[in-house]
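It would be a great kindness if you could assist me with a short task in structural biology. The full record is reproduced below for your convenience:
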Amino acid sequence: MASAEPSREGEPGHEAEPGRERDSWAQLGPVVRREPALKLLNPVSGLEPLTWSDDHRLSVSTTGSVSVMDLVPDLRSSVPDLVLHRTHIPLHQPPCELQVTSKVKEKLEKCSDPTIRQPFLVDRIINPQSGALQGVKYTSWSPLGCDLNGRCLLACLTLDCRLTIHSSHKRLQWTQLLDLTELYGEMLKARNYSVENSDVPQPSLDDPDELQRRYRMQMPVRMEWSSLCNTQQVQSNNAYKDIGTVLLAVLMENGDLVVWQFRLPMQGKGSVVSCNTIKSGVSSPSVLAWWEYEHGGRKMSGLIVGSSVGPVKILPVNLKAVKGYFTLRQPVVLWQETDQIPVHNIKCVSLFHPHQKCNCSLVVAARGSYVFWCLLLISKAGLNVHNSHVTGLHSMPIMSISTSRNGGSIFTCSMDGAVKKLTPVFTDMAVVFKQEEIALPEGVAGQRIHGISVSPNGAYLALVSTEGLINGFHPVNRSYQVQFVTLKTPDEAAAELLESQLQNLYRQTDLLDLVRWRVLKDRCIPPFLQDELDDKVHTTGSTYLWRFKLFLLRILYQSMQKAPTEALWKPSHQDSKVFVGEEEAGGAPAEEAEQGEVSQVAETSGLEELREKKAKGEFSEEQVNEITAWIEEVESHLTREHMKRVLGEVYLHTLITENTCIPTKGLCDFLSNDPTNEDRAAKVLIGHIMNKMNKQTFPEHCNLCKEILPFTDRKQAVSTPCALLIDPDWVKKILQGPCTFCDSPLL
């Protein structure tokens, strides 16, 4: 495989980096405030108001809506600031009313006993007419791959106890899929408000305690998603088929655990597979988290429940027909004392124990101003539990806690504006924590912090804050805003991207944005990054690295563009028609090179002149065309690799539905007649396919116009398989796959 490796000296974007630029990035350090800071329309509400999803969307709980901010490493913008697409999910009107007979309320309103009547009148859940609570209590993001586009779903719990699940449609539109409060209320009513389907008579609703019990069993406290799992479903031919599912655990006010199982992708009530209720036995429950542990190739799961009076324990979750799912035999108590210190938040981090040479699970929880930790390790003797507290972190109760997946770092904050970082250091059997205070930059330090959240790969720390004391006094009016600070340098982000095990750019958007920031600021690709990337591309040929190279070249191209003098939204007053052929012919094509040779470019008039042009924002047309040619070459390579993957699927599946058309012969001819590429693997594959062409049963013409499907230009191919009606699973998998150039889902 030939790869373009132009000479470094004198090239735009690849010149020797000045020492002044290196010093400026070194002086910034890892913690830097990024623009813009986003103001919220309403005050924040609920516990843990910030939640970051696996697809890099940040949800903010407010009194009027859920504000969602989508981090996008925009390839069309030359501004180095963060690019955030902002949407809102408004609250329901009117307030939620739980499924309980209304006649009982009338009796309580007219009750002459003040000890019965007054608690009813002041309860804003049982009696919403007294003033329903407004705002969002908690939000939780599902793992990737749960909606139709392969993105995350958002579960939203409001203060009036309404639990709903939402999906984003075409990025900027939200749709409610399910109202779980209404659905669970109907289930309880059908079984006479008993946990299990039984004929045991229930107490009369004239008893206020019974009325309170029926309300508390419908009032969610927290909810959390599990990781993806598979369920075996019996087909019409008695064969088993694996169906992707996800679990949503809901903790109720009375201590019940309601575990919902949904079929993926989730589309509504029809996606509900099962709903099981588990008695936790925890009094005054306050927080919930999934415990997931992998040992010896087996995955174990359970639910961690914390109480507002102190105790914490793990409960087994027994589910049938879930493939590869195991749970505990009995509950495991992590903290037993009822010390009246409430458990505010729980996080579970999977780590590798360097001394025991096995996986372990670290559970951390915020309890007042302390951090409770528990290390769980499975050995030959069974499950080992080590626990303790980290003290002296904050002078005030911890407001929020967030964890980083890489390295297991833990971040905590209190209302006084202090943010601390805990790094676990393993001993022979237990763990100790290295404490470090995050030096917040100007504009963030000294503010009142209500919540924090770390991005999926630990690149950014999001904070929701308000003004602190002004001259020793609280401000009359407070404005709430979300700010972003970096936790890594762009060089560290680039190094992680090069050595990444994910092999997916979309799932590392936060790291990509740091690299984008530096390239746009310096208007060049860091030499160390370019050199190491070219070496890895040449030795491994990884398509992931080719996509990373394309991303860098596109950002570099944007940094060369002049800033527009007029607003981009203004319409043009000149009407001009441009043919597609003329538009495509405007760019300078890449020079053809022989196999194994490295393409060379002409040298410019020296580094000093180039740096002066870069400082003035000027680049020659030749330099811009040079970058355009490199982009074209990388895109062409990625397109050919995608064609080979499609042809490999075609070779394995010769029998498909009647109305599916795939231009197999056109793809083979395009790859065979490409003079700029000599790919032996493609030639071998094409040879096998041509020998098998007489066995295929699908046509290569359009079902609408009956014309032969042409394939002469990869840019004009809308999609490689052209399916008009019902598709087989392997064609659906190709059509629903991510973008060939950036790994992002096709919305």
Q: What stands out?
A: Residues 101 and 205 are 9 Å apart (CA to CA). The chain has a mean pLDDT of 83.
